[in-house]
Write a structure and sequence with these properties.
By secondary structure, the protein is an alpha/beta fold. It is built from 9 helices and 7 strands; from the N terminus they run ααβαβααβαβαβββαα. It is globular, with a radius of gyration of 19 Å.
């Protein structure tokens, strides 16, 4: 019997059952956004950046997702400049995320999926609060096991409190899931892999809902498949660019109105 995979599958099956209602609500929200030619933004810091990167761009994903990846919230070294200690400090610094988000095309009617295991870091909470002010639907993917811990954010909220819809990864608080005889702590983290699985479930369900409405979005396919070429991939990137340009134009109009005092 596997040490890690069997335990991970047990958690994944538990999450699939526990989140049925949340999956449906989240997929309906994403479908509404994408059908209106809006964007589904993806946000995380630290390891929680990885589910955002895994969602788009990749084979099997489609135009409409926008990963918000701040290089300062991703480590590039273990120690020193761009290292983990800097990242851990920054993601706990309130109001930093707002400075990053001000330059992103977040528009009313869009949706955002925010990843975070503990749901207590300022980065994710600030992003959720910012997005709601912009008229967006906020979906949190985190571990509800952490809800027993008190909030540390000045708002008194955790990520789950600030979100409209919460999807539980069912990962344990300690994240690692494999005990080792003679060791004081378990090994092999689960939260990032489970968050990716939860997001791929949303990708699939949203596509099904769009298909039922007669909507097909440009989808990446591997050029190793017969009949698919690199030109197909370039064409989809072009369609993605067009959607992003429209989103940026809407975002610019909002800030022009804000400067005039209309928004």
């Amino acid at each position: 019997m596997s040490l890690y995979i069997s335990r991970l599958l047990t958690l994944a099956e538990k999450a699939a059952e526990a989140n049925e209602e949340a999956f449906e609500a989240a997929a309906a929200a994403l479908c509404k956004t994408l059908e209106a030619e809006g964007l589904v933004h993806l946000y995380g810091s630290g390891h929680s950046v990885l589910p955002a990167q895994e969602t788009f761009p990749r084979y099997g994903s489609y135009v409409g997702f926008n990963p918000l990846t701040d290089p300062r919230l991703m480590w590039h070294n273990v120690l020193g400049a761009g290292g983990v200690r800097e990242l851990l400090w920054l993601e706990r610094t309130e109001r930093y995320a707002e400075k990053f988000l001000d330059h992103q095309p977040l528009n009313p009617g869009d949706s955002i999926v925010i990843f975070g295991h503990s749901g207590r870091n300022a980065s994710g909470i600030d992003t959720a609060l910012y997005a709601k002010k912009r008229g967006m639907t906020v979906i949190a993917i985190n571990a509800k096991a952490n809800l027993d811990k008190p909030a540390t954010h000045s708002s008194g909220q955790r990520l789950a409190d600030a979100a409209d819809i919460v999807i539980d990864t069912c990962a344990p608080i300690e994240d690692a899931i494999v005990p080792v005889e003679g060791w004081t702590r378990p090994v092999a983290g689960s939260s990032t892999v489970l968050a990716m699985m939860m997001m791929h479930e949303l990708v699939a369900r949203t596509a099904h809902k769009l298909g039922e409405r007669g909507v097909e979005l440009p989808t990446f396919a591997s050029p190793t498949i017969e009949g698919v070429t690199l030109n197909d991939t370039d064409r989809i990137y072009g369609q993605y660019r067009e959607r992003m340009i429209k989103a940026q134009e809407r975002h610019l109009d909002f800030f022009k109105q804000k400067m005039r005092g209309d928004a």
